[in-house]
């Protein structure tokens, strides 16, 4: 039996998997739980969202984007391995930028292309409570987990490349007014697979018992659930049934 967390017993992986089998096990998680199948994304990729709904997505997703380098800095702080830290800090540079614009700046360019004010976006005042809760929960997960679990929570990048390519095509086709803001996705086409390969190799090397492999799988499942929860909030509030919370600061498309 696995360990108990929040009154739920985690299921242990029954046997130690070799590297290809572990990869396949993680792929099964992605097929079942990754947010590529969420109704909000399906509407987006079919061109069925309004400008206001797309603005809501860009705005709320910024909160997640802004927390990625914070998450990676926490993971960095958990390791005493110089080689690991040297490799992992690339992620922070990718998002914060160095000589050129990083992922956060590129996301702000997407927000401006969507017609949003930069300072309004970066203030984070208009974020949905459900999105804020899910993103903050991800930071908590990384903060209070082991290094192996924290690294494994990033394994959603195993599935990101295909979704990013699909999204770029959909945005260019259905939302041409976003054309000047797609640089973020272009960069992630190469960054995400590189990051995923490193994280998977680390997990495969250090998860050398069925119990540790179960922690890898559970961490990926929890990350998938947190990504899904963000879209749940967006879909409920802006698409169906479109029930915005009463807080005065929440983004309302008609006011944009």
**Could you name the ranges where pLDDT drops below 50 across 5 or more consecutive residues?**
1-9
> Rounded to an integer, what's the Rg over CA atoms?
18 Å
From the 3D structure, determine the CATH topology: Heme Oxygenase, Chain A
What is the overall silhouette?
Answer: globular
Distance between the termini: 52 Å
**Please, what is the average pLDDT?**
93
Please count the beta strands (DSSP E, at least 2 residues each). Answer: 2
H/E series, N to C?
Answer: EEHHHHHHHHHHH
Classified by CATH, the class is: Mainly Alpha
Structural class: mainly alpha
Q: How many domains?
A: 1
Count of DSSP H/I helices:
11
CATH evolutionary superfamily: Heme oxygenase-like
Strand content: under 5%
CATH architecture: Up-down Bundle
Largest sheet: 2 strands, antiparallel
- The helix content, as a percent range, equals 55-70%
In the sheet with the most strands, the strands line up as 1-2
Note down, in words, how this protein is organized.
- The chain has eleven helices and two strands, in the order E-E-H-H-H-H-H-H-H-H-H-H-H.
- By secondary structure, it is mainly alpha-helical.
- The chain has one domain (28-251): Heme oxygenase-like (Heme Oxygenase, Chain A, Up-down Bundle), CATH 1.20.910.10.
- The protein has helices spanning 19-33, 39-45, 51-77, 82-96, 103-113, 118-122, 129-144, 147-152, 157-174, 183-206, 210-239, and strands spanning 4-5, 8-9.
- It starts with a strand and ends in a 17-residue tail after the last helix.
- Helices cover 68% and strands 2% of the residues.
- It has a two-stranded antiparallel sheet.
